[in-house]
Amino acid sequence: MTMHTTATSAAKHSIPGFELRSVLLVAALAAGAAGAARAQTAPPSPASPSSPPSQMAPSATQGAVPQNRTTPKDVEAAFGRADANKDGKLDRQEAEHLPAVALRFDQIDANHDAFISLAELTKAATGS
Known about the structure:
This protein is mainly alpha-helical. The protein contains seven helices and two strands, in the order αααβαααβα. It has helices at 3-12, 18-39, 72-82, 92-95, 99-103, 105-108, 118-126; strands spanning 89-90, 116-117. It has a two-stranded antiparallel ribbon. α2 (18-39) packs across α3 (72-82). It is globular and about 40 Å long.
């Protein structure tokens, strides 16, 4: 197989901007998961003033989870691209087009019907 054929074959299977949007969705889902995990842990006890600097409590901005900037419109666009058969839901095979969704399929599928609806994905990605 020549390099030109490989490049042409790869170009037929990619969607312009799809990879970037998938990465943004992955980042949004990861930020949401990190925020949920952080909310479930006990806050560190404040260090005494005589503690060495390495043992002092972190500042409020240090290690903060960035705000989720994914909009429902972004989620809807990604969902539409992944929904290959246009039935309004993602099965496990379609979810593979969104790696972060595929990894968390069972968590996102809130009603456990083996499909992810747009509403379920929007709630997982934006928290609303």
